[in-house]
Amino acid sequence: MRVCVSLIERTAHVRLPTGPQFNEYRFSVERARMVRDQLVARGINNDRVLVAMGRTPRHLFVPPETRAHAYDDGPLPIGAGQTISQPFIVALMTQLILPMPNDRVLEVGCGSGYQAAVLAEIVREVIGLERIGDLALQAEALLHKLGHANVDIHIRDGTEGYAPAAPYDAIIVSAAAPEAPEPLMGQLAEGGRLVVPVGDETGQVIERITRRHGRFERERMIEVRFVPLIGRYGFKKSWGWE
Ligand code: SAH
């Protein structure tokens, strides 16, 4: 993190150069500022998460026309009516699963692949599930291009989890569920953590469910607004606004 902090301190009062030849430089400074102003300032304190967020090129996961806003403090459209979550929410969900280098993690609703890329920086293996084929294929191609050989993406209804690779040390659900899908709880390893936004179209609360001695401990964290998880153990149809 030291490199990152000194970079933003040195550039705090500098107007960033414009022009396409400076794009990568500008994005790296904006990313460092995002880590400081949106994550550290709001209590994200897991070093692994901060380093991964500081390394992952979010601007490559959004459509070219929104690239200039890639490091803004909010969600962005990624096509097919779906969104990439606000950076703070990605960091928070990653921190809530207490990721460890040897973990195998399932992400349900991997969309653009951004959350999966952040996870891939930290853990041993990431399995991503996505119901929209175009998004899944695009995410897979980008993750491959970025060299994340430890991510595997499957096009399927993620509410049923993915039994062939279970159990998982952690599961992140990146869409709003009416309740924590039962198959996902069943695919958690002993000591495993499931993080999922639970609620309805008016809003949700992020829940963390930890499997301990065959029991499930529940904690309710913060209020959020996600697009719906659509599937057998999710909602039956989209909400119309997303
Ligand atoms: N984590 C993503 C955010 C994607 S938004 C990112 O970093 O870009 C939520 C995603 O969940 C959408 O892409 C949506 O298509 C997907 N989704 C919704 N229901 C699903 C289901 N049952 N199985 C798999 N993916 C689902």
Describe this structure in words.
There is one protein chain. The protein has 242 residues and is an alpha/beta fold. The protein has one domain: Vaccinia Virus protein VP39 (Rossmann fold), CATH 3.40.50.150. It has seven helices and nine strands. It has helices spanning 2-11, 23-39, 47-55, 87-96, 114-122, 133-145, 182-186; strands at residues 76-79, 82-84, 104-108, 125-130, 151-155, 168-173, 188-200, 203-212, 215-224. The strands form two sheets. The chain has a seven-stranded mixed β-sheet with strand order 5-4-3-6-7-8-9. Strands 1-2 form a two-stranded antiparallel ribbon. A hairpin with a 2-residue loop joins strand 8 (203-212) and strand 9 (215-224). It is globular. It starts with a helix and ends in an 18-residue tail after the last strand. The mean pLDDT is 94.
Features:
binds S-adenosyl-L-homocysteine; 242 residues; seven-stranded mixed beta sheet; globular; alpha/beta; Rossmann fold; 7 helices
